[in-house]
Every structure is written in structure tokens, then in C-alpha cells.
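Database export, one record per block. Field names are fixed; values are copied verbatim from the stored entry.
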Amino acid sequence: MTEQQPMTPTDGDRPSLSAHLSQLALQQMGQPVVSQLKGLSIYLIGMMGAGKSTIGQQLAIALGYRFLDTDSLIEQAAGQPITQIFAESGETAFRQLETQVLSQVSAYKKMVIATGGGIILERQNWNFLHYGVSVWLDVPVEVLYSRLKGNRNRPLLQTDDPQKTLQTILNQRQHLYAQADVQVPTTDLDDPTHVVVNILDGIQAAIKPDPIPPQPGEFEIRYDT
């Protein structure tokens, strides 16, 4: 009888094994936060190119949540890409669709929701964002531009100087993004896992744990006579 040699992972197996271990690590890191959230959804806000969809998917794994992208839902509802909505119906029509989609997804729990960069412009949208925990991915304009330059799918950046346009948009929106429950500064050197860890830390700091009631006999109450 020939002794069977132990199996060793092939080069083709290693990426999937690595990804599996990474998911397990994320889930372990997310467990303490899950108990604090008690089902509250997470809304990622920030500029276009901030990485909300990429980070959101990793964050959903860490929390055991589902992931949604409002831009994708808008395109599904409208039956056309966002660039076409802007071109044919204008930004106002797009913002109305955005609010409708947000109002629907806010009814659900245990979701990580990546939102569009301008979702914070409508005051009504904040009513829905407050149903959960809002997290601002704060990324420098230089990093945003390096990710977005040459991208033809961003209607607001079809200008002669996209980097200057990005800076102008950020200047207009920064005070609104700053209303988020959690702010996570991010650079191009941060990998998604590192950003997720910072988000989890920020959520833990933002959500106060429930007070522990005193046990019977723990305190002695005295009355002055």
C-alpha cells in the first residue's frame, strides 16, 4: 500500500485560500461592532472616487451585512446609466431618483450602503441617513483625481480642469460631509482592510454602550433626617 502524501496548495489554490482567511479575519474584527449596532445600517458617504463601493463590500463582510450601492439601484430603476440620466433629464431628476431609492433602502436593517457623492445635498436625505450610522470616507482631492482622471462616466467631471472641479465640489460639500457620525481620513496608501478597521474603530467610538443598571444592594441610599 502506497503511503499518501499530504496535499499542498497549488498556486491556483492560494488566492482563494488567502481571500477566505482574509474574510474570516474581517468577520472576527467586526463581531464586537455588530453587537453595538443592533441591526443599524451603515451609510458610506463621501466624494466620487472615495472608494465607497470597494470599502463597503469589505465592511459588509466584516459585519455579516448585505451590501447595496445606491447608484447601481438608480440605474436599475431608471433602466439607463447615470450619465444618460444627467444628459437627458438633468441633475434635478437624478437627485429625485436618488432620494426615492434612499427612502426605500433606509427601511432595511443590517445593510452597508454606498451612496452617491451628492446624496448629502438634499436635506431630506439626512432624515434617511440618520436611520443608521453615517461614515464619511475623507479622501484628499489629489488622490480622488488620480483615481478618476480619464473617467468618462462622471458627468460632473466633464470639464476642462477636472481636478479643479473636484476641489470646487469638495469645498461646497465638505461641511455637509462633516455632519457624518464617523469621519475616516483615507489616503491612497491605505488598503481596503486598513480602512475597514478604521471604520470599525470609529463606529465603536461613536456608539455609546448601553448603561449597565446597578445590581440590588450595590448602592446604599441614605435619607437625611
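Remark 1: The radius of gyration is 22 Å.
Remark 2: Strands lie at 42-45, 66-69, 111-114, 133-138, 182-185.
End of record.
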